[in-house]
Write a structure and sequence with these properties.
alpha/beta, 7-stranded mixed sheet
């Protein structure tokens, strides 16, 4: 069943520096993903919109925190994916420092969704985001996108392999299969967001 609450999501602001981010109050959930992992498509599917999160023709180009407002107290945050970014190591290091600070120090950040291509999970980027999320003492969801690219058996095997890899953090890290075109996993992800954001269940 479609949850209309997430259709309310709309662009709030973009921050190239952390001091430009909205006030650190309320509750927010961030989405991280290596370039080409399907992060924008996942956000759009979860929010029942076609172009809320825009995909770039130049993977890794966006170096901003994009904030989407759901209501006055709740936000989703699209973090920059720089897996394929053609930028200098100095710029990349600077952004790693920004992201680490945001993930570890942001008080309103209740959860982190790490978007991974099911065919290439747990890259160095994914593991770095996982480490920062764990250090930030929040709950994490590893979203295995493009599940429609694999048959059911291999998809389940990939999920189990990822679950085994993070088993030592099973109390805080969950794994979910996802396909934006087939809307697989959309309701499950919305359920996690509902809990992290404390969405009132009488929303319509």
């Amino acid at each position: 069943m479609m949850n209309p609450f997430y259709q309310r999501a709309h662009f709030l602001t973009a921050a190239t520096q952390l001091h430009q981010a909205p006030a650190d109050s309320g509750r927010e959930v961030a989405f991280a993903g290596r370039s080409n992992a399907g992060k924008s498509s996942a956000i759009n599917a979860i929010c029942h919109q076609k172009a809320l999160a825009r995909t770039s023709k130049t993977p890794g180009r966006t170096q901003q925190l994009i904030f989407f407002e759901l209501d006055a107290e709740r936000r989703l945050v699209d973090l920059p994916g720089y897996g394929y970014a053609k930028v200098s190591e100095a710029v990349k290091l600077q952004w790693q420092q920004h992201l680490a600070h945001y993930l570890e120090a942001r008080r309103s950040l209740m959860g982190l969704v790490i978007v991974m291509d099911i065919r290439h999970p747990l890259t160095d980027y994914d593991r770095q985001m996982l480490a920062w999320g764990l250090k930030g003492e929040m709950s994490l969801l590893l979203l295995l996108t493009k599940a429609d690219k694999l048959k059911k058996g291999p998809a389940q095997a990939a999920r189990l392999a990822v679950e085994r890899a993070v088993a030592s953090h099973a109390d805080r890290v969950s794994v979910q299969l996802f396909s934006a075109p087939e809307r697989q996993g959309v309701e499950a992800v919305q359920g996690w967001l509902d809990r992290w954001l404390e969405v009132p269940q009488d929303q319509d």
